[in-house]
Design a protein that fits this description.
Number of helices: 10
Helix content: 55-70%
Structural class: mainly alpha
Order of helices and strands: HHHHEEHHHHHH
Low-confidence stretches: 4-20
Number of domains: 1
Shape: globular
Oligomer: single chain
Distance between the termini: 81 Å
Strand content: under 5%
Mean pLDDT: 86
Length: 220
């Protein structure tokens, strides 16, 4: 009887542990290698988010040259550097699940008003910085982190100088995916009807675009 009780405890404990470890939705990119290594985060989720972003950009931001992935990322980054939203009407259920899972990782993010960004004090940022391939981009990361001045709108123009690095360096791809893509989507209410969602985001993008333009003019 005692052996049976112990056996049942082991089974129940194992079941609970398995439930905690299993994702809440089916991952589509399990065949991909991790973009980088970091024990401080759920790398299976980071990998899923990274490659889902890559495919999203490939599909929705290549306008003139269907096979030019660098062009696709440049097109998106030019929008993202002004803190504007991606084409949310094309976000599918799988990506919505990724967004929800990322939002649950509250320690990954900081929030000012309704605006999210990566938590630059999180160990993830150290993992990303240490694994970047391009020394010039890595130097900018290091400098901004050391001076506590890290901002997405500052780093994206730096990345745009060598946009091919986003394709050759999966660590950089992950950073862009998390801080320049998913961070903006965390504030979107995807329960809204499609038309309402589109109009809401269009109006918000217009406001943010005008604000960015005014800031550029004031800095000239």
């Amino acid at each position: 009887m005692k052996k049976l009780s112990i056996f049942l405890i082991i089974i129940v404990t194992s079941t609970i542990w398995s439930c905690k470890k299993e994702p809440k939705f089916e991952y589509a990119y399990t065949y991909e290698e991790n973009p980088f290594n970091c024990s401080a985060v759920d790398m299976d989720l980071i990998k899923e988010a990274t490659f889902a972003y890559h495919d999203f950009i490939k599909k929705h931001y290549t306008f003139r040259q269907p096979n030019n992935l660098v062009e696709a990322h440049v097109n998106y980054l030019k929008v993202a550097q002004f803190n504007m939203f991606p084409v949310v009407e094309h976000v599918d259920d799988h990506m919505k699940n990724i967004i929800a899972a990322l939002k649950e990782k509250e320690d990954l993010w900081t929030k000012t008003g309704n605006l999210y960004s990566l938590n630059y004090s999180h160990e993830l940022i150290g993992c990303i910085t240490n694994n970047l391939k391009d020394e010039s981009i890595k130097a900018v990361f290091d400098e901004m982190l050391a001076s506590n001045t890290f901002r997405t709108e500052i780093i994206l123009p730096v990345i745009l100088r060598s946009p091919e690095q986003v394709l050759s360096d999966t660590t950089l791809l992950s950073y862009v995916a998390l801080d320049a893509f998913y961070a903006s989507l965390l504030e979107i209410d995807f329960t809204m009807p499609t038309d309402e969602l589109f109009n809401t985001v269009r109006d918000m993008n217009k406001t943010r675009g005008e604000k960015a333009k005014q800031e550029l003019l004031s800095n000239e």
